[in-house]
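Dear all,

This email documents one entry for the complex benchmark we are building for the journal club exercise. For each entry we list the sequence lines for every component of the assembly. Then comes the predicted three-dimensional structure of the complex as a token string, followed by one or two observations. Please use this as the template for your own entries, and keep the labels exactly as they appear.
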Amino acid sequence: ILNVEQSPQSLHVQEGDSTNFTCSFPSSNFYALHWYRWETAKSPEALFVMTLNGDEKKKGRISATLNTKEGYSYLYIKGSQPEDSATYLCASNAGNNRKLIWGLGTSLAVNP
Amino acid sequence: NAGVMQNPRHLVRRRGQEARLRCSPMKGHSHVYWYRQLPEEGLKFMVYLQKENIIDESGMPKERFSAEFPKEGPSILRIQQVVRGDSAAYFCASSSTGEQVYGYTFGSGTRLTVV
């Protein structure tokens, strides 16, 4: 059974702080790693899909890295803003199948 | 270009009734996935469908649950004889073949409450 784990479970930061959190996944038979942002009362929104070891992706103040050999990905937020408050989910699908296994998410609260 | 449309947003059913949840994928997407989120838990895969075919239903409970994605019309997740434990948020997502680049597009979910 494939387990995707995220840490920390929740995080409170002040506006302007930079922060990061972790997603770990089994490295064997890796295919892709997804990051999603999920605001309360909305639907998950895709941030990044990463497939290559060493890959780095960036969208505005948010970036992510991927290490497929050791089975982890980091999500970084630079200069957090209150609108960044959301749950950040990662998911992985091992092997060439489309069934994503999801972590439980990191809940981020940014205080103004 | 409408995203993934799910309806209804909220559904209340009495124990023993049937629940039908609908999902219209994003235009151009031919792959549909259903996920369930139980209270205090993460998203759990239920089923993956393409038009007229169930590709992977390994996450579906063996009884009372079924899904279809007909040639015409939305995908339907059907729960027969609902029980209180079926109360959850059910999310649908869709993708094109390029989801490894763009990811999945999610609907807003249907929140089922069984009373």
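Observations: The mean pLDDT of chain B is 92. The longest helix of chain B spans residues 99-102.
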